[in-house]
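Changelog note: in this version the structure field was regenerated for every chain. One regenerated record is shown below for reference.
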Amino acid sequence: MGVPARLIEFLDQSKVRYEVLHHPEAFTAQELAAIEHVKGRSHAKVVMVKADGDLLMAVLPADHRVDLEKLDKATGRKTALATEADFKALFPDCAVGTMPPFGALYGVAGYVDASLSEAERIVFEAGTHSDAIKMRYADYERLAKPTVADFAVKMS
């Protein structure tokens, strides 16, 4: 399984500059950040959340975790972490846990933590455990059109 064609086509059609990074297999956002020599605050990880039965994509720095109480306030709904079974079928072209942070490509609303917006560039998983994409945060936000909110806390 390679980088999802829908992601590459979307980025190319949007005429943004990005770089595909190939790396040894990594299974956590922190591992990927270390392999790519990127600070955890610049690596965007995706956490799938259920909000009153709907799935939402929460995007946050690798060195942060979702604070569900803050996310409840941001969404105006009661949220809970989704299980793999809840969302696996939504991302048929991605290895489990490697979905890119473009919820709209998969019919899911996206939220990005405000702390990630401070990064000049971000790196995120690109559908496999050995591919990532690096691009300017400003381009990501313009294309993904996520709701920017404060819902993550730095892990100690």
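Spot check on this record: The chain has one domain: 5-150. The chain is about 25% helix and 30% strand.
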